[in-house]
Design a protein that fits this description.
433 residues, alpha/beta, seven-stranded mixed sheet, two-stranded parallel sheet, 18 helices, 13 strands, 46% helix, globular
Length: 433
Amino acid sequence: LFVFVASLDLFAEFSAMSIFANVEQGPAIEVFALTRAFNNDTFPNKVNLSVGAYRTDEGKPWVLPVVRKTEISIASDESVNHEYLPVTGLEPFTNAAMELVLGADSPAIKENRAFGVQTISGTGALRVAADFLKTQLNRNVVYYSNPTWENHHKIFADAGFTSLHSYRYWDQTKRALDFKNMVNDLNQAPPGAVIILHACAHNPTGIDPTREQWKELADLLERKKLFPLFDSAYQGFASGDPDHDAWAVRYFVDRGFELFTCQSFAKNFGLYCERAGNLTVVQQHGSTKAAVHSQLTLLIRGLYSNPPAYGARIVSKVLNTPELRSEWMDSIQSMSSRIREMRKALRDKLIALGTPGTWDHVVNQIGMFSYTGLNESQVRVLINEYHIYLLKTGRINMCGLNTGNIDYVAKAIHAAVTGANASGSPCPCDNKL
């Protein structure tokens, strides 16, 4: 009887166990964990330099005036409804996005061998691109820069790529592009490999190749028969000039490359939560357009059926209305100008404090982020002692700096580098800058 009862108890225990009981806790996503810690921090002078979003000089999120105006206009339009968009999205949006990155006079557009499909922001564009490359073109090898946006690896691994490689990009000693080793590593890539290139404002370093270096990279990719995939998350936001920021993509198209460009409108329109993105496809011949488009349609149908309309409607109306487009240009110039001002202010204040090391790289970089060169020990000091939140790599969002906190941040960096904590006593840091 005892054995029987014990068996019943054991059966009941296993029957009650959840099928999810053995699911392991996944690691925290660093940037979101830092934002949560920042939000929970009660320190009055705390600073968030982690999340990739624009902030005003008052440290507030900014809805672009032209975006707000367009939102009101769309909401007041009685003809707008909530019907499903086509699987590949809002055509006026995809056409405008494609034209923005390729240029209105692009030969690929004129020859009808380029098109766009709407995606769930830039991340969605990358995933759709990766899935298509894997399932339709049997690509399995991808190269991305070291360092790069952390999601590049995950997206392509989740899409089934099993041969994932990095190419050297950042020279920690010189605080500059390691172009020689970048070329050396890409020369090892096998024919057909997918090469992820940041179109402008490289994340996280803020360092882009020069135009001459882009030409050399094009020569290499052409010679090795490699497939360029551009990640374009900061067009217009980086320099204030969308044409300038699209130069590399347009150069490759003019050279005759077939390629993908993954576009995000989170940064340059401030539409972070609206997930407005586009995958621009450039082919050698217009004859392949219908087949490629059909397979992307089927792929998207299985992933998320069709994309959201709201953000796409805003971007479409702004880009397709000359008056609104001019207002948008004013906004992106305002954002990029403020970032440049903060770069100069940080560099100048660190130099004035006599902070060891060179800080010119801060102003030589472009876009939202700066790869400061701070090591993990110094980052820990900034977070724990000064309540300044940044990634462990030392990457900071320049938009988090403003005239109200720049002095505090500069002094904190100086203390972390020189080995003094908030109380003025030495800290156990590796200060080799």
